[in-house]
Amino acid sequence: MIRTVNLTKRLGEFQLLEANVTIEEGEYFVLLGPTGAGKTIFVECIAGIYEPDGGSVLIGEENVTRLRPEERRLGYVPQDYALFPHLSVERNIGFGLAVRREDPTEIARRTRELSDLLGITPLLPRAIRTLSGGERQRVALARALAIRPRVLLLDEPLSAVDEQTRETLCGELRRIHEELKTTTIHVSHNFEETLSLADRIGVLRDGVIQQIGTPDEIFRRPANEFVARFVRAENILPGVATPGAEGVEVTLRNGPTVRATGAAAGPVMIVVRPEHIEVLATAPEGPVANCYRGHVRDTLDRGATVKLWVEGESAWVAMMLRPRWQAAGLARGAEAWVRIPPEAVHVFSTEADEVGGDGPC
After folding, report:
1. What pTM value is reported for the model?
2. Which CATH number applies to 2-220: 3.40.50.620, 3.40.50.300, 1.10.3720.10, 3.40.50.720?
3. pLDDT digit string, tens, across residues 122-132
4. Residue 38 backbone class (left: φ over 0; alpha: ψ -120 to 50; beta: rest)
5. Which of 199, 218, 234, 270 gives 317 a disulfide partner, CB atoms 3.0 to 4.6 angstroms apart?
6. How far apart are CA 171 and CA 194, in angstroms?
7. In the Cβ-directed half-sphere of 113, how many Cα atoms lie within 13 Å?
């Protein structure tokens, strides 16, 4: 449905560098990255707000790179929603259709249809200034969808709402997407929001696409150290890999050997997410792969879960459900054993520090 080919844009000292991204029809694609990575510029180049310095934007088979925004048939919700304060909710929703000189009966029908879908019909006569953040988000989304866009662009649409409202709106966005099947590009920096919505994720750093893949690939099999740290894998350790009879063995720098599945050789990094590490109060029986003795250096109670720092021959960060942590008696200073399933250990070459284009999928 939408494809960027070597998309490049320079703004002052910032550069979006040859971004090659392909998004399938009906896909919900989330673009992640730290502040200043270029996420908004990427979306604004697709929307036509900026004209690229190089490369092209294609929607379907049509090259829209030089078309004006209104000629692209895109729905765009910017970070501040850009609602018209002098118009009612109803007129805001129907604005794009009115600009296209649609029949007033059709504008009213489409406005009512979307307001029913988003649960904002009682708000139609209201002024924008009287709405909450969540209500404004729904109105902005309805206005973007009213023109039946080929692609919906959402630039951090939930950044201005509280956590409870964000969770509710994520559910609504997913429901609406499943019902309308509109191809969507959603800029975000919130991991929970991303995991609840994305079919695929792209990670951007300093204007360069680092990796594109499913949520499982991005969060559990990062392509390089930057992606691993950005998605908070936390256990990211250098070592040297040697092919073995049952996968690969990685000798950590100043640490033990870790067994992993897959194939690798030479200098590598291993990545293990905290939730994949099991912490035990007593040593497991029999030979167990990747089992290390240590002590609990520190804990952090997060309500439903507890984060543990376990140190011994190596240092690990683990996550446990609070009832299991309490039952195990793994308080600060307690003796502990760390057990890591080989399939939970992701290994990548340290040469894979930059990934261009669509990256590993």
Report:
1. 0.88
2. 3.40.50.300
3. 999 999 999 99
4. left
5. 234
6. 12
7. 14
247-248-249-254 Cα dihedral, nearest 10 degrees: -150
Exposed e or buried b per residue across 263-290, where buried means at least 16 C-beta atoms within 10 angstroms of its C-beta = ebeeebbbbbbbebbbbbeeeeeeeebb
CA 20 to chain centre: 18
Q: Name the H helices within 5-86.
A: 39-47
Q: In what order do the strands lie in the sheet with 62-63?
A: 14-23, 2-11, 54-59, 62-63
Task: Say what the alpha-carbon torsion angle 348, 351, 357, 360 is, to the nearest 10 degrees.
Answer: -20
For 132, counting Cβ atoms within 10 Å of its Cβ (0-12 exposed, 13-18 middle, 19+ buried), the class is exposed
Query: How far apart are the C-alpha atoms of 248 and 258, rounded to whole Å?
Result: 8
Nearest residue to 353 (alpha-carbon basis) of 247, 236, 263: 236
* Tens digits of residue pLDDT in 150-169: 999 999 888 877 888 888 88
Domain 278-339 coded CATH 2.40.50.100:
yes
Rounded CA Rg of the chain: 24
Q: How far apart are CA 333 and CA 311, in angstroms?
A: 10
